[in-house]
């Protein structure tokens, strides 16, 4: 598979999984590939997602959740969906386009219960799963120039 030049990460609310994936991808590959994220609906920024990303030095506190309808550009080489609802929407969204849609089943960290630490651990798990999948898909780090 040739390396995509533009990737959209999609989930249900664009508050946890897709903005985390977008930020991780930009952190490692942002000079080479265009990344965006969207949800079926706009949610509110999630403080646990922000905290989990701050632990690895990535700031998502300024992320503004947005939906598929808010996208300025819909020409992506690849759409990676992180929830079943987003996968269905992406297939519908792209039915007249030549774009690959891939589903990465990703747990919903907002369903975690218990102490603050237990909840944060669920967000860390999502962060680590996404980091691993992104590095596996795109390589382990920026490619050398030249």
Explain what this protein looks like in three dimensions.
With 146 residues, the chain is of the alpha/beta class. It has a single domain, classed as Rossmann fold (3-Layer(aba) Sandwich), CATH 3.40.50. The chain is 37% helix and 14% strand. The protein has a four-stranded parallel beta sheet, sandwiched between helices. Strand 1 (6-11), helix 1 and strand 2 (34-39) form a beta-alpha-beta unit. Helix 2 (47-54) packs across helix 4 (116-138). The longest helix has 23 residues, at 116-138. The protein is globular and about 45 Å long. The mean pLDDT is 91.
Structural key phrases:
single chain, 146 residues, Rossmann fold, 4 helices, 37% helix
SSE order, as H and E?
Answer: EHEHEHEH
- Rg, please? 15 Å
* CATH architecture annotation: 3-Layer(aba) Sandwich
The CATH homologous superfamily is called Response regulator
N-C termini distance? 21 Å
Total discrete domains: 1
| Number of DSSP strand runs | 4
Structural class: alpha/beta
**Helix amount, in percent?**
25-40%
| The first-level CATH class name | Alpha Beta
Mean pLDDT over all positions: 91
> For the largest beta sheet, what order do the strands appear in spatially?
2-1-3-4
């Amino acid at each position: 598979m040739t390396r995509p030049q533009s990737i959209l990460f999609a989930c249900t609310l664009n508050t946890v999984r897709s903005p985390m994936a977008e930020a991780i991808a930009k952190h490692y590959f942002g000079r080479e590939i265009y990344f965006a994220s969207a949800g079926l609906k706009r949610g509110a920024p999630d403080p646990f997602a922000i905290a989990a990303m701050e632990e690895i030095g990535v700031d998502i506190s300024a992320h503004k959740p947005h939906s598929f309808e808010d996208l300025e550009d819909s020409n992506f080489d690849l759409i990676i969906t992180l929830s079943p609802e987003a996968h269905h929407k992406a297939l519908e969204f792209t039915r007249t386009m030549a774009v690959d849609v891939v589903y990465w089943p990703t747990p919903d960290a907002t369903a975690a219960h218990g102490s603050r630490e237990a909840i944060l651990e669920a967000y860390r798990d999502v962060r680590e799963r996404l980091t691993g999948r992104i590095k596996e898909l795109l390589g382990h780090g920026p490619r050398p120039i030249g």
